[in-house]
Specification:
Layout: H1 2-19, E1 64-66, H2 75-81, E2 87-91, E3 94-95, E4 99-101, E5 107-111, E6 116-118, E7 129-133, E8 138-146, E9 159-163, E10 169-177, E11 181-193, E12 196-198, E13 209-220, E14 223-225, E15 233-235, E16 239-243, E17 246-249, E18 256-258, E19 263-267, E20 270-273, E21 281-285, E22 296-299, E23 302-305, E24 311-314, E25 323-326, E26 328-332, E27 336-338, E28 341-343, E29 346-348
Parallel strand pairs: 1-2, 2-5, 3-6, 4-7, 5-8, 6-8, 7-9, 8-10, 9-11, 10-11, 10-12, 11-13, 12-14, 13-15, 13-16, 14-17, 15-18, 16-19, 17-20, 18-21, 19-22, 20-23, 21-24, 22-25, 23-26, 24-27, 25-28, 26-29
């Protein structure tokens, strides 16, 4: 009886302490949303790819949706059903296929992440590329592409992306790597926006990107780096315009190779030359011909140079045509200027 009375008094004392602002439980956590469990009963981490309710597609209405459990299991299946002007959305996953895109103004877009077209070991479309553009006005958005390789007998120039002659295309937020060529183009109007190319250019005849023929190329906010042997960026186009982009040569050849001249403008970009590499030249202008007489302009460009023999080289194949340096700053070692180069602002910052 005495023990029971003691317990009762203790409980009353605790209640009085809470009433007077004594110890209390912490405030509850913010809601974390509905819990989801997989087939094995374990809690799943929800991502954009699996957060839709059963039967709901991650693709926009009116698009051809590619992915596991979607109307089209492969890109090839969606392309077979597509018409000019359609949009194909590809749910993020790895796809082991190579395809030819033969519909005008077609858009292929990654959704719920970035789908990866891994072509390693596959027969390439047209014996040319992982994705072969065979129609005008194609747009590729938010994709990763890799593994394009052809045997010596087939040219040893497999590309992530290649176009049939004069077919125009646009790349937005595309990553291309681990292929003999990143882009190998022949003519057309080409736009590259917020994309990255690396670990391409496996021989002296292949490059991170290579633009050829009667072409116009416009590059914005993109990265070209770490080619194995070839150039980071090579353009034979009559018109090449680059802005807000980065070029880094660590063991390949030139950062920028403009072999035949052409109207070339580089704005607000960074060009880096490492100590290693096949060539000491950061830029080579008209090393092969003057097929397209014009000037080259570097404006508000920042050069990071680690090589004592590095140079910006105008081969002067185009008589009277110059490389103009406007507001160019150099970090590291000041490169040698060779040939007709007009210094309108070229300074060592540190």
């Amino acid at each position: 009886m005495t023990a029971l009375l003691g317990i009762a008094l203790a409980l009353l004392a605790g209640a009085a302490a809470f009433a007077q602002g004594g110890p209390s439980l912490p405030e509850g956590s913010a809601p974390i949303g509905e819990l989801h469990r997989g087939p094995n009963g374990e809690i799943e981490v929800m991502t954009p790819a699996n957060s839709t309710v059963p039967g709901e597609s991650p693709c926009d209405k009116g698009t051809l949706c590619v992915g596991q459990g979607q109307p089209y299991p492969t890109l090839a299946a969606a392309l077979a059903a597509a018409r000019d002007g359609d949009t194909i959305e590809v749910v993020a996953a790895t796809y082991r296929e190579s395809a030819t895109i033969a519909h005008r103004n077609l858009t292929i877009r990654g959704v719920a992440g970035r789908p990866h077209f891994d072509c390693a070991g596959l027969a390439l479309a047209g014996n040319k590329a992982c994705l072969l553009i065979a129609a005008d006005g194609v747009k590729l958005e938010q994709l990763e592409i890799s593994g394009a390789e052809l045997s010596d007998a087939k040219g040893a120039n497999g590309a992530c992306i290649r176009n049939q002659p004069d077919m125009s295309f646009t790349l937005t937020d595309v990553i291309c790597h681990g292929s003999q060529d990143g882009i190998l183009s022949n003519g057309g109007t080409i736009v590259i926006d917020r994309s990255e190319f690396y670990d391409n250019g496996w021989t002296g005849q292949t490059h991170n990107v290579y633009f050829n023929g009667d072409c116009t190329v416009t590059v914005r906010g993109s990265i070209f780096r770490d080619a194995r042997v070839g150039h980071e960026f090579k353009s034979r186009c009559p018109k090449t315009t680059i802005s807000d982009s980065t070029f880094r040569s660590t063991h390949g050849s030139r950062d920028l190779d403009i072999p035949d001249g052409g109207d070339t403008e580089v704005y607000g970009s960074t060009i880096e030359k490492d100590e290693g590499g096949e060539s000491e030249e950061i830029i080579g202008f008209t090393p092969e011909s003057c097929r397209q007489p014009a000037d080259m302009i570097l404006k508000d460009v920042h050069i990071i140079n680690h090589r004592r023999d590095a140079k910006i080289h105008n081969f002067d194949k185009c008589d009277g045509r110059a490389i103009y340096l406007q507001g160019v700053t150099v970090e590291g070692i000041l490169p040698i200027l060779q040939g007709n180069i007009v210094n309108q602002g070229y300074t060592l910052t540190r």
